[in-house]
């Protein structure tokens, strides 16, 4: 059983997080465990991208993503499960690793996106980076159960 489980959620493909949530609910310590759902808004943290948006627009986008994550959690998590939510900006793998350290996560559970071999070879995989650099256990879920419907 794990006390603190981090689940990254890609709100553009929320179905990928459902198997991770199901596993996390089985692995969460019923005596005080907490789930942490997080999502990452890529782009705005880049100086080049940020120069095209005023701070009010960035704040509005952050609030919209936050509301989307709140709605997602309300639909996916049982009401009695202690949880927290957070929205970050930047590179997904780096933000996941930093958040896991910040909350002292015992486990990260995430679903691997099915990308082409060329994408993985050229760009690398967020899940591979998290596995390589995280200071806690990482469970990567893949397979037919992860295909979005």
TrEMBL record:
<comment type="similarity">
    <text>Belongs to the universal stress protein A family.</text>
</comment>
<feature type="domain" description="UspA">
    <location>
        <begin position="1"/>
        <end position="142"/>
    </location>
</feature>
<dbReference type="Pfam" id="PF00582">
    <property type="entry name" value="Usp"/>
</dbReference>
<dbReference type="InterPro" id="IPR014729">
    <property type="entry name" value="Rossmann-like_a/b/a_fold"/>
</dbReference>
<dbReference type="InterPro" id="IPR006015">
    <property type="entry name" value="Universal_stress_UspA"/>
</dbReference>
<dbReference type="InterPro" id="IPR006016">
    <property type="entry name" value="UspA"/>
</dbReference>
<protein>
    <recommendedName>
        <fullName>UspA domain-containing protein</fullName>
    </recommendedName>
</protein>
């Amino acid at each position: 059983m794990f006390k603190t489980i981090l689940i990254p959620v890609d709100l553009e493909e929320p179905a990928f997080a459902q198997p991770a949530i199901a596993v996390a609910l089985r692995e969460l310590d019923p005596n005080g465990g907490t789930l942490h759902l997080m999502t990452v808004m890529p782009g705005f943290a880049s100086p080049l991208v940020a120069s095209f948006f005023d701070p009010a627009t960035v704040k509005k986008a952050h609030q919209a993503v936050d509301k989307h994550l709140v709605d997602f959690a309300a639909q996916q998590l049982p009401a009695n499960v202690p949880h927290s939510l957070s929205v970050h900006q930047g590179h997904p793998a780096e933000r996941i690793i930093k958040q896991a350290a910040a909350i002292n996560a015992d486990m990260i559970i995430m679903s691997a996106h099915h990308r082409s071999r060329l994408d993985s070879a050229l760009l690398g995989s967020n899940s591979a980076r998290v596995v390589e650099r995280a200071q806690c256990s990482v469970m990567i879920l893949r397979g037919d159960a992860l295909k979005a419907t």
